[in-house]
Amino acid sequence: MARIKRGTATHARHKKVLKLAKGYRGRAKNCYRIALQRVEKALQYAYRDRRNRKRDFRGLWIIRINAAAREHGLTYGRFMHGLKLVGVDLNRKILAEMAVNHKDDFAKLIETVSSKLAENS
Asked: Transmembrane residues, as ranges?
């Protein structure tokens, strides 16, 4: 019975890891054992930060909406409550986009919300 040699599989696996480690500093880019550790850690960071990015953007959108709403005399919380009362179903990403790039449309939205809030008070 012929003996099984696994050199090609090992070589392919090493090559895959070293390809992912391209651009790393020092031996992390060309020494397999070190590269494997760095690549695994990098993939952990990537996994974690894909989730953190969603949180970060939501926070950014809220900050932008709050700033734009306060320019018109409303707080973020009151503005969002007013939107719910009016029945406007826009997400924070779109509202932040409006607040930054479409100020006149956002002002109309604020006006609508303000009138509804005054009506309910």
From this structure: none
